[in-house]
Amino acid sequence: MLNKYPLWKTLMVAMIVALGALYALPNIYGEAPAVQVSGLRGVEANAATLDTIKAQLQQNNLTFDSIALENGQVLTRFKNTEDQLKARDVLDDSLGNKFSVALNLTPNTPDWLASIGGTPMKLGLDLSGGVSFLMEVNMQAAINKAQEGMVSDFRGDLRNEKIRYRSVKETKDAVQVIFRKVEDLEAGESLLKKRYRDLLLTTDEDKLTLTAKMTDQKLKEVREYALQQNITIIRNRVNELGVAEPLVQRQGQKHIVIELPGVQDTAKAKEILNATATIEFRLVDTEGDLSQALNGRIPANAILLTDKDGKPTLLKKRVMLTGDHITDAKSGFDEYSRPEVNISLDSAGGSKMSSGTKSNIGQPMATVFIEYKATDRKDAEGNIIFEKVEEIISVATIQARLGKSFRITGAGSASEAHNLALLLRAGALIAPITIVEERTVGPTLGAENVRLGFEAIMMGFGLVFIFMMIYYRAFGVVANLALGANLILIVGIMSMIPGATLTLPGMAGIVLTVGMAVDANVLIFERIREEIREGKTIQQSIHQGYEAAISTIVDANITTLIAALILFAIGTGPVKGFAVTLSIGILTSMFTSVVVSRSIVNVVWGGKRLDKISI
């Protein structure tokens, strides 16, 4: 029987559209103003933090809709932005430096919908307001730093093997080693070739010199490492700001895009991103009297610091090692399945650690995190004043003489070990970064963009709806139903994909999709009209109209999809936002204009004896 789908196929099409509608549903509930409290430097909010927040809000007569502790963060929802702003100020003053208090917008999605993963679409910076930076990584500085490491490593390796040399120095794009005699040159070349296979080594026996250059592959690895490590460090700093849905991602070979929704103070955001932080290793002063130090009588060669829980510890003033020598830090587990942090140092750092620990085996060593945080105060010249914050993040006993690689145990849980590894890596940027572009979008402008974009979509949909109704009559209603299903599926898919973000150009992509989606139905309906004019029956005309138009529709949409994917792959910012919605819209429009519209036609007219139809 022509134009008659089996029941299972019709139900499957209806189920797909219903699923899209279900996941598009969270977008109609809106968002509520909220305050998010999250811990800094590995601290996690707990039940005690929750009770403190409740007490502070009640003490200041601030009512809230709900408060919850999730994933180490406390999220409090309010009825209006006035209470939200007052609560932020109250909590910021009362919680101190251990927690970040940030404004947030949280979805009003019902619990039953959130339990199945229903979330509203994430809005881009141009729709939500905030600050955007484009930062450029100084790759030449990264290469120079790698060459400095080569100089230090060469000296250490040659000394350990007792190979005599006159000097090891950097040149323009290489490292040059001058030896005392030919035998030393040959021994040095043999040693360095074994240990540094990613370097190009050349020798000059007359001048007794060995020149080491990085291969193209090594240079690529250095640049990639500098970019990825800077992204990790910046993302760690941004996360500590407590910004809702921040974006930190690479752009091209040497740029980093940072978007901070909801942040309006550009100057302070720049200061925080460029703030310096470092790590120091110090021995614990086991001979000093802690009780006297707490009363203010601190020994001249010691300092008194506390950990994240406020527990005081007396440390020796002399610094064993700074974080500048750390090349990598990874969390893991030891042979007893206890959390640990594995640390790698450069050659100079390894030598310092070795000499500092050989006579202190069995003594406790503290890892101190030092950060210069931006304050609300400014000096006479208008510059933001930074406050030095020192905190002990780990105390471990030295079990053996340490070198370039060692591990820290006693970090607590696996989560704390992971956070400690992040902090150790985030001490300093691998290569300097420069802000080459900055952009601020106000929340009022963002709301206006949302309103205008929504009006454009509805206007486009309305005009197409009217045209199809007038020109194709009953079949125009079918096309409009399919077009509505297309919009629902676009919104549903955008809401389901974790990384998808709706931007203003993305809204333009949806408007374009509305026009493109109806093109397919126009092709089908015009072909049905032609078949009817040639004298075929209604059912044959409908069948032939859909079958003959499919190849044309697929060809036209596939070529557009290829262009959209290219835009997504090489484009950035607004171009990528446009490509995302266009790509999703092309796929959903092919489904709705062919499959959904034909299912409706089959249900209404399929298998019936018809003399005429309204088309």
Short description:
Keywords: Cell membrane, Membrane, Protein transport, Translocation, Transmembrane, Transmembrane helix, Transport. By secondary structure, the protein is α+β, with helices and mostly antiparallel strands. The chain is 49% helix and 25% strand.
Please provide a written account of the structure.
- The structure is a single chain.
- With 615 residues, the chain is α+β, with helices and mostly antiparallel strands.
- A hairpin with a 4-residue loop joins strand 7 (165-170) and strand 8.
- The two termini are 22 Å apart.
- It has helices spanning 7-24, 47-59, 81-95, 111-114, 125-128, 139-160, 182-195, 216-241, 266-273, 290-294, 347-357, 414-425, 443-496, 504-533, 538-570, 574-605; strands spanning 31-39, 66-70, 73-77, 99-107, 122-123, 130-137, 165-170, 175-179, 199-204, 209-214, 247-251, 255-261, 277-283, 302-306, 312-316, 321-322, 326-333, 339-345, 364-378, 384-397, 405-409, 433-441, 501-502.
- The chain has 4 domains: 7-26 and 442-605, Up-down Bundle (Multidrug efflux transporter AcrB transmembrane fold), CATH 1.20.1640.10; 31-107, Alpha-Beta Plaits (2-Layer Sandwich); 140-219, Hypothetical Protein, Haloacid Dehalogenase-like Hydrolase, Chain: A, domain 2; 275-437, Gyrase A, domain 2 (2-Layer Sandwich), CATH 3.30.1360.
- Helix 1 (7-24) runs antiparallel to helix 13 (443-496).
Which structural traits does this protein have?
23 strands, four-stranded antiparallel beta sheet, transmembrane, 4 domains, 25% strand, protein transport, alpha+beta, 615 residues, Alpha-Beta Plaits, Hypothetical Protein, Haloacid Dehalogenase-like Hydrolase, Chain: A, domain 2, Multidrug efflux transporter AcrB transmembrane fold
